Amino acid sequence: MTKQLDEQEIHETYYEKIVETLKQEPYANHLGIQLTALGKGTASAELQIQDHMLNSHGTVHGAVIFALADYVFAAASNSYGKVSVGLSTNVNFMAPGQKGAMLTASASEMKKTRRVAWYSITVESEGNLLATMEATVYRKDQYFVPIDQP
């Protein structure tokens, strides 16, 4: 009988490879998003707002806020080295982000099963809550780190 993989051990054993993979996300790199922390089911990142990220009102475009929230959601849900893909998100925009501001986002796993996991995400700027996101992910069988799979 094949031993079942322990996701906690996978996270610890392959941590560097998982972080390296997540830091190579093309769209996040294009925007300038920086992964600042990765834990088991958690992630944090930051983004320095540039002029081209503003909307016609001179505040941070909602798509930029969403992209930052979505990135930490992806990082947290893939933190075990298992391929996880988004099923749904619900975003609440609460305050505008300002030109030149540093945005920070954090994701926390609320519950995880073999196939589905739920996350809570916040986006802040200078201690001000800009947005929250609730997100659900589908957890595939494949891993993106080179492990012996059962």
From TrEMBL:
Q: Which residues form the signal peptide?
A: none
Q: Which residues form the Thioesterase domain?
A: 57-130
Q: Which UniProt keywords apply?
A: Hydrolase
Top-level taxon of origin: Bacteria
* One Pfam family of this chain: 4HBT
Gene3D superfamilies the UniProt entry points to = Hotdog Thioesterase
Which PANTHER family does the UniProt entry name for this protein?
ACYL-COENZYME A THIOESTERASE PAAI (PTHR42856)
Q: What is this protein called?
A: Phenylacetic acid degradation protein PaaD, thioesterase
Organism of origin is Bacillus badius
